[in-house]
UniProtKB/TrEMBL annotation:
GO terms for biological process: potassium ion transport. It holds the Pfam family TrkA_C. This is RCK C-terminal domain-containing protein. GO terms for molecular function: monoatomic cation transmembrane transporter activity. It comes from the Bacteria. It comes from Micromonospora wenchangensis. Residues 73-159 form the RCK C-terminal domain.
Length: 159
């Protein structure tokens, strides 16, 4: 995907792009953090059909959702590229072994397993590290040998 970047004096940065389906849109970034998403008419790329105005927190939330989707897609691709490695996304159940514990204090320490990300309240925390405290409602994304990921499912599901 190619972006056309244009500075609009007094407004901000406009990043215009076309999708694989030939739809044109742009994101206008204002200095205060506001973002405008502009959708253009399919037959006239200079005519805006609508503008979605996002305040900074809204723009960050949408970016988080898009990043989460991209992260999950990349993880699926990683699994296809690495035979023998399984990537799973597991919800942390209330009162499971992992609820309220740091990653390194779970029953998974020392297994051939890596914590790739945690999804908390719709936001992705990539490579959170051994000190990250897991909470019920989180989703952990782990990669490793199939036996280790199966054990992880049991641990976080509360089995």
């Amino acid at each position: 995907m190619r972006f056309e970047r244009t500075v609009i004096p007094g407004v901000g940065l406009c990043q215009r792009f076309a999708t694989a389906h030939g739809q044109w849109a742009s994101v206008i970034s204002h200095p205060g953090g506001r973002r405008d998403i502009v959708i253009y008419h399919p037959e006239d790329g200079d005519t805006a059909l609508c503008t979605l105005v996002l305040e900074q927190p809204e723009a960050q939330a949408v970016a988080g959702v898009l990043n989460q989707a991209v992260t999950v897609d990349h993880l699926a691709e990683l699994e296809r590229q690495l035979p023998g490695v399984t990537v799973v996304r597991i919800p942390v159940a209330v009162d499971s072994i992992g609820d309220g514990k740091r990653w390194r204090d779970t029953a998974l320490s020392g297994r051939p397993l890596s914590l790739l990300a945690v999804v908390r309240a719709g936001r992705v925390v990539p490579t959170p590290g051994d000190d990250y405290v897991l909470l019920a409602g989180d989703e952990v994304v782990v990669a490793g040998a199939e036996a280790a990921t199966t054990t992880a499912v049991d641990v976080f599901a509360g089995h």
